[in-house]
Amino acid sequence: MTRYVLCRYAIGQRGEIEITEGEYESLAADIRTLVEVCDAEEKYNAFIDNYFELERGLLEESLRAMVYLNHSADDLLAPKNTINRRIINLLTSVKLYLDSYPQHANRLLDGDALEDLKQAPSKAYDSSLAYRVLEALRNYSQHEGFPIHGWTVIHRRDDSVEPSVHWASVNPSLDLESLARAGSFKKAILNELNAVGGSLELKPFIREYIEQLGTVHLAFRTATKTIAAEALKRLKTAVDRFVATYAGSSISVVALPVDDRGLKVGEPVYLTATVVEYLPHLQARVALLTNFSRRRVQY
Predict the structure, then answer these.
(1) Which pLDDT tens digit goes with each residue over 192-241?
(2) Residue 299 lies in a domain
(3) Domain that holds residue 39
């Protein structure tokens, strides 16, 4: 006959509390919920880290342009190639996040909440030209060419202050003619860019894209906040219940199916698994960047 217990999953450590099969299954489901939410948070963190590396690279190249005065082909093209690679890394990691987004939603939610959450990327796409451009650019960079067409190193003197200031920056950009010749760049987006006209600098497009992705992830966190919090609460309650009986036993507390002899006959559910602390860490690590296009770095 199978029994279900809370115990310490360590050799030589005794002590157990009887629980029901339903409690065991509920605790197992809670761990699965936290792992699912954690997976989505890791993907969000991954593309934000790639974005951070991209912006750090742009800052570094601007500083390089200010300090060094080399003008060989390598000095001009090597930075462009580096930033190309970092944009591709960003777009690829965003693709993973967006493609898995509805899968995580399906495993966590149902009903209207599920349908509302799955619509969040589409709403961002419809509301933002920058989002549409970067989505089209990702497809283009996966199948046809690098995302950067133009690379300009800018030196500008500002006489509006005394003494005057010398500004240095780099400016990656798109080229409409190159995109028009491409078979893989979405024509509807090309038409939008033609209608807008003006500068096709990549930095503003990318920053607004990150902001819109922040709204997508805000929808995910809002929709899953309650179920994740309830899962964490039930796990903590079970651990506290065991520790109240067996003081100092909070490490490696598990819910476990055992036979009449107390031997394991099923999979342990680790109530003190790393995910219990890792999920809050991931959620607190990166701010929700819903107003990101209006933020500036000053130094």
Answers:
(1) 999 987 779 999 999 999 999 999 999 999 999 999 999 999 999 999 99
(2) no
(3) 3-294
